[in-house]
Every structure is written in C-alpha cells, then in structure tokens.
Prior knowledge:
- The longest helix is centred in the C-terminal third of the chain and has 22 residues, at 121-142.
- The chain has three helices and seven strands; from the N terminus they run βααββββββα.
- The chain has helices at residues 14-22, 24-30, 121-142, and strands at 4-10, 35-38, 45-52, 55-69, 73-80, 93-102, 105-113.
- It has a domain at 4-32 and 66-142: START domain (Alpha-D-Glucose-1,6-Bisphosphate, Chain A, domain 4, 2-Layer Sandwich).
- Strand 4 and strand 5 form a beta hairpin.
- It has a seven-stranded antiparallel sheet with strand order 1-7-6-5-4-3-2.
- The chain is an alpha+beta fold.
- InterPro entries: ASHA1/2-like_C, START-like_dom_sf.
Amino acid sequence: MNELKYEFYIAGTQAQVWDALVSPGQVQQIYYGSVIRSSFNPGELLEYVGPGAEGDETVHVYGTLLEFIPEKVLSFTHKVGPSYLKDRENYESRISWRLEPEGACTRLTLIHDNWHPDDPAYAASDSAWWHILSNTKTLVETGRTLDFGSWE
C-alpha cells in the first residue's frame, strides 16, 4: 500500500501547532473527545483514548512512541483499538508528524506509512486524516474546530 502523505500550511508558530498535536485539551477538540496519553518517552506507550464503543475510556489508537522532538517530530507505531478489530488481525503501521517553519507559517507534514497490504484501516485512515488535519489547521488559526458532525 502507498504511504499516506499530507502537507498543510498553518498560520501559526511551530509551538502553537505542536500544542495542537500533544496538548490534551487541544487534541480532545481535534479528535472528537479523545485525548492523547503518553509519557512522551521513546519506546513507551502512546494511545488516543476517549468516548466510543467501550465507553469514555475507549482506546481508539495505540502504539509505541518512536521519536519525540518537541516542536519538530512526533512519530509512533499505529494499531487500532480492540473495539475496532471485530475478529480480524491488528496490523501495525507508522505515523510521523513533522513541523518546519515556512516564513511566518508552519508546514505540517503527516506521513502514515509501513502499511500491511491487508490492513483494512488504510481506507478509513485516508478519509479521517483530512478531517484531523483540517481541524488542526482551523484550531490553530481560529481557536475552534470545524463541525463535521459525529465521528462515527
């Protein structure tokens, strides 16, 4: 499968965009009520937890933190949470966020790669990333997110 790669230019500093990616309050707005949980130490668990099929503590995505350079790089392995499996194998992929200055803006690059050819999460991820990235850009630039309706 091809990597999913997106570049967005955001009218905000690297610090502002970084906060949108890791600050629980901002992540919660972008990811429909889910928060990011992690020690942010490479090699340790990173997970997105929030309202879902298993209640308020549903694990939507989890993985191992690979790289963490504040305001520059956030990279981790990606597996879908148990409630999404429905008797299928849970394949692992990789998500990498990269932030770079671009004039008075920040270029945010997301690469979701290392896909297993049979991973059914690929199509859902390709669709969902547009919402997540648009929400990230809008939150940094305006202080609010877009209204896409329900996540599910």
